[in-house]
Structure formats: structure tokens, C-alpha cells
Amino acid sequence: MKKIILGLVAGGLMSVSASAASYQAQGCGLGSTLFTDGSSLMHQVLGATTNGLSGNQTFGMTSGTSNCELDGMGGQANAVFIKANKVALSNDIARGQGATLASLSRMYGCTNLKAVGSALQKNYKTIFASENVEATQIDMSIRNVIETNKACI
User: Fold this and answer.
1) Which positions make up the signal peptide (predicted)?
2) pTM
3) The total number of structural domains that make up the chain
4) Which residue, 21, 56, 90, 118, has fewest beta-carbon neighbours within 10 Å?
5) CB neighbours (10 Å) of residue 107?
């Protein structure tokens, strides 16, 4: 058992030291630092879950650490995250809670996840107006819902 734990820790440290990419599909934060292969679905899930559980994304975004730098993306980090996690985000918004929704809420700088989840859940049909709605449109709709409902505290 000790060998397995040591192997996991060593693997995590190698991932951290090998991480050269800044923004990952699973969002920025501890999860994107530990699980650097954003193209692997398993790493996206593990990364997003770690980000949601660790709750360090707000600090990372404010301080520019934990892979939270935008690297010239012009503030489009939320749209990139939405595009990469569209199905999971859609499911989370329909439920009003979930790791993907929590990660995105933190990317918007929101701390009251319950209020954000509730507001977005009530406006699901507006946010996901069609099956092939673009990530940038989803981002704008979410911003409008958050501002209109003053859900982001």
C-alpha cells in the first residue's frame, strides 16, 4: 500500500514539474496542475473534480498561479472551459449543482455556488437554447443570468 501511495505522489509531482501548458480544459487550479493531459477524458474529470474539491481556483485566478494565466486568450478562458465541458456543464446546470458548474462558477469569481446553481438551473432553456449553441453564447447567457439575478456574491 505504501508503494502505491508513494507512486501516486511521485507521479503527481512529475506531472506538476512537467506542466508547461497554462490553461487546461478542466479549468485552472490544483487539478490542472496535477492532471496536465487535458486531452484525456479521465484527466479532465479528475482535474475538474480536484479543482472543485480543493476550492483554490479563485486564488489562482487572482494571483495568476495554478495554471490560471490566460496566455493571450483575451479573457476567453470561460468559453474554452465551456466548450471542453459542454455536456457535463449542461447536466450540472440542469441539476443546479456539480463539479463542472462549481469550477465554472469560481472562474466567474462567484462564491455562493448554491445561488449560482439555482439561478442557472431556472434559466437552463435560455442558456442552452438549442442543441448546437456555441460556447461563447453560453458564456454570455451565463454572465447575463448571474448579473440579472445578482447570484455571484
Assistant:
1) 1-20
2) 0.54
3) 2
4) 21
5) 22
